Amino acid sequence: MERLTTMARRQAASAETSADEAAPPPEKRRRVRIKPEERYREFVSKAVELFAEVGFDAGTRELAQRLDVTQPLLYRYFPSKSDLISAVYKEIYLDRWKPGWSGMIEDESEPLRARLQHFYEDYTETIFTPEWLRIYMFAGLRGVDINARYVVNVETDLLMPMARAVRRELGLDPDAPVRPEEVELFWTLHGGIFYYGVRKVVYGFDCPIGKEQMIANAVAAFLDGAASVMRGFAAEEAAPPIAPSSRRRSPGSRR
Amino acid sequence: MERLTTMARRQAASAETSADEAAPPPEKRRRVRIKPEERYREFVSKAVELFAEVGFDAGTRELAQRLDVTQPLLYRYFPSKSDLISAVYKEIYLDRWKPGWSGMIEDESEPLRARLQHFYEDYTETIFTPEWLRIYMFAGLRGVDINARYVVNVETDLLMPMARAVRRELGLDPDAPVRPEEVELFWTLHGGIFYYGVRKVVYGFDCPIGKEQMIANAVAAFLDGAASVMRGFAAEEAAPPIAPSSRRRSPGSRR
DNA sequence: GTGCTTATTTATCAATCGATAAATGATGCG
DNA sequence: CGCATCATTTATCGATTGATAAATAAGCAC
Fold it and tell me: What is the pLDDT of residue B228?
């Protein structure tokens, strides 16, 4: 009680200003006890919400206020703010990944185009939310390795299955190793769809075309176009190019 | 480093501790006078660099330090930090836009595919830099209108010219108003290419395929695929669909 | 009820932030 | 040279940040 330190000292040193009038009522806090693991989930969940809105510079006090809890309580559950951020990463990029996606893509009981349509409808339902997209971008800008690792998952579990599926469709060898050019080609499809979500959800741009229709058009155009390009890759593979240094030729034969 | 003023003051006020030992040499600042407009450009330029690295929460003190100038000097050139940020926006999204791009796309003295190739090589040379991409993302996450306005420019000056060019190529009416579905289709090409830059420059992902080759493949695949999809659009336009409510049919005929 | 455990709050620190006022000195003009 | 202008620095404020220590009280066991 007696240890008035910095503020009191400053005040006393600067002037009088009799600081103890109009003191707001102390306003006792209602104190509810919740079992730790539930609190933990509560904290992470609200942290996801707050960080998605404001970014990782959002204050711990604001988070505590939204949870109707005092700020130091956070430090009983997370040693530091960066630990809280790690928990947020895990919640979004690990817990929300569905292992069934790669199966959806390669399962041949349905036509390829329909499979891609269904996969992307499901995938975008997961990631086209402010929480997912915004935190993904915030994390990427922070330079954490999360995004680089996530991108590897996308390549191995989504894009390479797609490449194999298209090869089967075209009668090409589905077991040949997927070439980097092919992966890159599927990235343009994936990135194009991804960017639709960014425009709509993050930039708040009004997209007149619905998500399903956009996916349908993108997939249809891609499959048609990718066919000739990938046939070109395969031909190049079968008959190695005459001059290996002239690798800048435009690939694939026109229709 | 420069905050030992406060500390020294506190020390002197609180107790003895003979605060003037080990006192770092006051270290007079070299004071150089530079004409205001040059300073201004210097400030904006370094601010672009700093904000691209750290984000808009980068401190004014750090910026001043990089400029080898004291922090209050910034406030002689910018009334507030947000004014500095506005200047950064202008430098990147207005000053770096080349009005010649739309001409590059529609100029028919070259084949369409080559035009798109050259345009995207030039365009990506402008935007595939940490400064451009990272500040674009930071700004988008902040919710400033900059991005929404930029996106409009992309649509009207880049994507709609592309759509018209493809129509000419296909023998369709180039003067018919560009339909939203078409714009959206070109967004998938644009977004796909854009996302290559994000992966490489922002996420630091190692892309084994060079920029030019990636553009070549994306453009080739897109043009082949977009052809059938856009022919589907045109047919739908000429002969209005029987049941206007069943708009979920997949567009375009398969090859 | 009594008492113990521990979830929660109160009080506070040191650092950093954007911003302002006043002192200083480099530069060009006469 | 002397002098005035103004670009630049010094000093400092008040607010806010992440984090810690100590006091408090909710809820369970008995």
Answer: 79
